[in-house]
Design a protein that fits this description.
The protein is an alpha+beta fold. The protein has two domains: about 1-25 and about 250-330, no CATH class; about 50-235, no CATH class. About 20% of the residues lie in helices and about 25% in strands. The protein contains six helices and twelve strands. It has helices at about 5-20, 55-60, 75-85, 110-115, 250-260, 295-310; strands spanning about 50-55, 120-125, 130-135, 140-145, 160-170, 170-175, 195-205, 210-215, 225-235, 265-270, 275-280, 320. The strands form two sheets. It has a nine-stranded mixed beta barrel. It is globular, with a radius of gyration of 20 Å. The relative contact order is 0.20. Mean pLDDT is about 75; it is low at about 1-35 and about 265-330.
Length: about 325
């Protein structure tokens, strides 16, 4: 089943090799650089509409989880250390023991969709709602801004119940409750309880730039509130940007698990222009592995797209997972 990807992967490899600045099909077209002397246009009042993307791709993916969090309570520590078995982060386990719900194509849920694999998303405003349309998993959220309050005893939902209001002309604040405990906070298996309350602050700096801050408040799991994102930079994309389809298909998830169980990893290391050393996991199964002896920028592009493009359920999100027969240029 996975053989249908081989030719496409080779094509992407060739494109990335020929063009240093090229984007793989998971990424939007690069916007023209703005001259340093050109001042950014002012932000429109009370308007977040548009297609937004992360300024730092790796920070958006966050494959190893959040940078830090508040200390666990006894309950949180028990869940994190004894129940959740993540494929990455400080409590990482061998792949055969991973029990990440994403591996079975469960929804990422909220706020994991903001703390892991944050990809391009579109904001649509109506008189009573703000709609968040996400590329990753092709899901959406409804944020009510008609003055209603949060439900007192909500039934759990994958993406909770959200209400928002303008704190000022350029800052929109969202509060969300009622998240399903089956979801994880991030890719490192940090837990949350049904008492979780999340505050998002979208602060528009100018026409093309916005900051996102995400505050986690869960007294059952953590001893104090903490920030999952702190003034995380977002940039406005052209209005004609198209989203790639990133959907976890159960049939492909099962095929991937089968390949993983029958294969051994070959690990190659590469570095990005920022100096990060990244492990690229290749599967020497019935295909030959591509050997990386190419520009670091190409490795970074692989890091940001190929593993999710081939295997939406891959527990090593953000790592290079490539199965293909290598072109002569790469042998």
């Amino acid at each position: 089943m996975l053989k249908r990807y081989v030719n496409s992967v080779i094509g992407v490899v060739a494109v990335l090799t020929l063009s240093f600045g090229a984007r793989a099909q998971t990424a939007p077209s690069k916007q023209p650089a703005v001259a340093k002397s050109q001042k950014a246009a002012s932000a429109p009042r009370r308007d977040l509409s548009g297609i937004w993307d992360v300024a730092d791709r790796m920070e958006g993916i966050s494959p190893t989880g959040v940078k830090s969090h508040a200390p666990f309570t006894a309950w949180g520590e028990d869940v994190a250390n004894n129940l959740y078995k993540p494929g990455d982060g400080p409590r990482r386990v061998p792949i055969g023991l991973v029990n990440d719900p994403l591996d079975s194509c469960d929804p990422a849920g909220f706020p994991r969709n903001l703390l892991f694999e944050l990809r391009p998303f579109q904001i649509v405003q109506t008189p009573n709602q703000v709609l968040m349309l996400y590329q990753y998993q092709r899901v959406w959220r409804v944020i009510w801004k008609d003055g209603r309050g949060l439900p007192k005893d909500p039934d759990p939902q994958w993406y909770g119940y959200s209400v928002g209001k303008w704190a000022d002309d350029y800052t929109f604040v969202v509060n969300t409750v009622g998240m399903d405990e089956r979801t994880w906070l991030d890719n490192a298996g940090n837990p949350h309880s049904s008492e979780l309350r999340v505050e998002e602050r979208y602060h528009r700096l100018d026409h093309d730039t916005m900051e996102l801050t995400v505050k986690i408040d869960d007294p059952k799991a953590y001893t104090e509130p903490w920030l999952g994102r702190d003034k995380f930079r977002l940039t406005l994309l052209p209005a004609n940007t198209s989203f790639m389809e990133m959907i976890c298909a159960p049939t492909e998830a099962e095929a991937y698990k089968k390949v993983i169980s029958q294969s051994s990893f070959k690990i190659t290391f590469c570095s990005t222009p920022q100096g990060r050393l990244l492990a690229c996991f290749c599967l020497p199964s019935t295909w030959s592995s591509i050997h990386f002896n190419i520009r670091s920028a190409t490795c970074k592009l692989f890091l940001s797209c190929i593993s999710m493009w081939l295997f939406p359920n891959c527990p090593y999100f953000g790592r290079c997972i490539i199965i293909a027969s290598p072109p002569a240029a790469f042998t």
